[in-house]
Amino acid sequence: MSVVAPPSPLLTVPGAVAGPPDTPDAAVAWHYGDPFAEQRAAAQRVAVIDRSHRFVATITGRERLTWLHTISSQHIAELADGHSAENLDLDLNGRVQHHFVLTDLDGTLWLDTEGERGPALLEYLRKMVFWADAKPQAEPEYAVLSLLGPEVGTLRAALGVEELPGVYAATPLPGGGFLRRMPWPTADSFDLIVPRAELTRWWTRLTEAGAAPAGLWAFEALRVAALRPRVGVDTDDRTIPHEARWIGGVTEYGSVHLDKGCYRGQETVARVHNLGKPPRQLVLLHLDGSADARPVTGDPVTAGGRPVGRLGTIIDHFEWGPIALALVKRTIPADTPLEAGPMAASIDPDSVLADDAPQAGRLAVDRLRGR
């Protein structure tokens, strides 16, 4: 099965430059002529970003929440109407297959995920329905826009809403779709899920009301700065949730609730949480921009010529210059000189999680052994 978002109609907007060729991001604008100004607008004022290449699906049926609760990592069985969460699909060994955002609204559970991974996620969900009253289906006629910036509130009239929703809350939009607040990539981040046929109309309405047009480059730079990974880019086929900072319930802005069971891969999640440490951790790298060449996603991160990690997203940030996300061995000290492909690199010490406390399970074992 293949459900691929078509090239966005917003690529015809004057100044639009498509995303890197031969990537899923080629379907939307990467920038509109001034990438750093667009990032600055998204961080300091308000910007609208076309993310219509994301895959959108719905699940209907009275058991949609309790059913999805049993096969995914987040606690959503009692998710209230008009609320959202982030969720993961794991394989039997606890490795991340899909990350998706979901919103339950007026009897329909909406979810959106990476465009090229959406068909596989939908196929898995359909296979797992069995006798449950739940019907997953693709919604290619809907698309995602994002609004970022502390001045989003100035667009309430253009959005047709009286108040902006709180984090992970959603409110219907006039004409169909909804507005949802997210906790990332900035403190003022909102997604609009709207009819694809109305994409250009929404873009025009928002930009005329004061939102700066910004390309996906702006979203990605702020996402990397916020240490939020992207499946298939910042993860590989060995990534477990602990490595990518996805542990946590809805109120913790995570994707894996530690007090629920009954989902594929749960044994690995529990074992690492209670008894061990993840072998790698997601960190922010600062790259030496003076190098003649640049690394690419998937290149090794090395220390003294020895591989110690893997590069994810590499991006130029409007304040920090070239930065990247990387999965590196947990035992690598933050001050270790690194190389990322042809560039020197250093770990941002503020991106390293302090995780030296012993796990509850390990302490219990030690007590049983009289230690």
Key terms for this structure?
19 strands, six-stranded mixed β-sheet, six-stranded antiparallel barrel, 371 residues, alpha+beta
What percentage of residues falls in helices of 4 or more residues?
Answer: 10-25%
Widest sheet: strand ordering: 10-11-12-9-3-13
**Which stretches are low in confidence, meaning pLDDT under 50 for 5 or more residues running?**
361-368
Distance between the termini: 55 Å
Structure annotation, total helices: 8
Strand pairing plus helix content: what structural class? alpha+beta
Which band does the percent of strand residues land in?
A: 25-35%
- Average of per-residue pLDDT values: 94
Major sheet description: 6 strands, mixed
Q: SSE order in H/E notation?
A: EEHEEHEEEHEEHEEEHEHHEEEEEEH
Q: Note the overall shape.
A: globular
* Total DSSP E strands: 19
Radius of gyration (CA) equals: 21 Å
